[in-house]
Structure formats: C-alpha cells, structure tokens
Amino acid sequence: MTIYENHAHEQQSEHVKAVELGRINAKQLSIRLGAGANEFEAVQAVDFTIKPGEFVCLLGPSGCGKSTLLGALAGHIIPASGILDVDAQTIDGPSPERGMVFQHHTLFPWLNVIDNVAFGLKMRGVVKADRYEQALAMLKQVGLEDVATRWPSQLSGGMQQRVEIARVLINKPRLLLMDEPFGALDAQTRMKMQQLLLDIWGRIRTTLVFVTHDIDEALFLADRILVMSPRPGRIIENLPVNFSRPRRTELVTTPEFMLLKRHCLDLLNHEEGRPLPRLSPLGLPTDTNV
Ligand code: ADP
Ligand code: MG
Q: Is residue 281 part of a domain?
C-alpha cells in the first residue's frame, strides 16, 4: 500500500464513522425571493428529513425552486419561516461542512488542479506537505492524480467537475450539495460521471442532496426522490428508489425503472386541481401501460 492509498484508507474509515452526521430536518420551510412588490414565495411550507449518508434527489421542473432550496441548505439564502437544520443546528450561513458543486465549475483559474483541491485545507492552516498529500489522495479518489499540475482550462468538462467534487470532499463535509452538476456535459460523459459519483459516494459516504430536472438521472442515482411542484415549490412526492446497488447503466432499460419513470412523468406533468397520481402498495404505479 502506498502512502496515498494508506491515507485514502484512513480517510475512508473516518468518513464511515462521520456518516452518523449529516441529518437534515426541514419543517414548514418557506423561502421568499425578490424585493418589495416583486417579492414572492419560491418554496412553500416544505417538510422533509434526510438521513445521514442518504442520497436524495430534488426533482422538479425548471424554475420550481430547486436551486433556491439547495441554496438554503448551503446557507446562501436565509429562509423566511420554518425550520431548516443539520444535526439539530439551524443553518445560519455558508460552511465548508456543506459543500456545493454547481453546473459550471468554479475552480480558481490561477491555481493548478492540486492547489484548487488543497485550497480548503490552506484556508484552515494545514501545512503544505500535509495538504498536498491529502489533495493527491483525494484526486486519486476521483481518478485524476495524473493531472495534478494542470490548469483548470486544460481539462475537459467532466474532469473539471471531478476536481470540483474533490475540492469539496477534501473538507469532509456533512453534506454534499450538487446543483445539476452534469447538466452541461454531453450524454455519454454525463453517464460516466453519474457512475463515478455513485462510486465515490460508495467509498466516501456523506449525505448527498442532488438537484436535477432529469427523471432518468434522479432514478439512476437516488435512494429517494423528493418531487417538487411548479412554482411555488412544494414537495408533492417522497419516492423511495429501491434499486439494488451497485447500479449499472442497464438499469435504465428495465421494466421496473420504466414504471417509476412513468410515475415521475405523471407527477411532473400533473395539472393543478387534478388529484396527484399515487403509487400502489407495491410501490409501483397502478397504471402499468408504459
Ligand atoms: P430551479 O432551480 O428549480 O430551476 P430556482 O430555485 O432557481 O429554480 O428559482 C425559483 C424561481 O425563483 C424561478 O422562478 C426564478 O426565476 C426565481 N428566482 C431565482 N433567483 C431569484 C432571485 N435572486 N430573485 C428573484 N427571483 C429569483
Ligand atoms: Mg436551478
């Protein structure tokens, strides 16, 4: 075992222990945006809990308030009313404990890959040798140890997002928050990134809240999907996704996957005033006409 593997191993055990942390509790949570006469309710009275280490997707149409809700979890947006806490502590501002990955990378263009990943450690005063060692171990976790000295601009979109994930995970966050992180990638890279993310999350377990408007992506990744209504965003379904792990691409063509996909489509296409489609006690939509 090399020094880096050894270190990665230690980090992994720490994370397995840390997975008792990262419990999210939201109660009657409302978020208002805009100012004065333009103020409006973007998220309306949502209730949910997320367990430590759980992978939850927020799925909903564009503009329904997904990013707003994720922004509140990151501490970038202060809710108008209700409860939003992590491990029984109210979120009152941004923290490295709650790391965010956006659709477009936010890497510092003037730092090379390893310095980008090591940045959070530098801010905490970790000495250079230690932070490089940890950053290299983290780059290895995302399969990028070979590009440690490259500049962000020299990387493909998929690689840039892997560096983003590494630079967030190096802070050992309780929450990993991802806002349509693969939305700008081509279909094939996107599928590879989804698999890679599941693989990383399997090794470095953290609570993961992943925003997407893509039903296939949500069903492929999540333990559970919270489906949101159009604006003002409310949670209209709490859908467990019990496909076994590890998940492989073939899953998306199975009849079980198609049934849940159809159910999600019905929810997203649902018109105001009509009763919401319900799942049968077997956990599958009653309408099997896929
Ligand atoms: P989603 O991520 O689901 O696409 P958002 O959370 O970004 O939706 O936005 C929810 C609604 O709030 C949208 O109608 C959007 O146009 C609006 N919005 C987002 N940010 C602001 C802001 N800072 N001020 C005013 N309106 C906003
Ligand atoms: Mg958004």
A: no
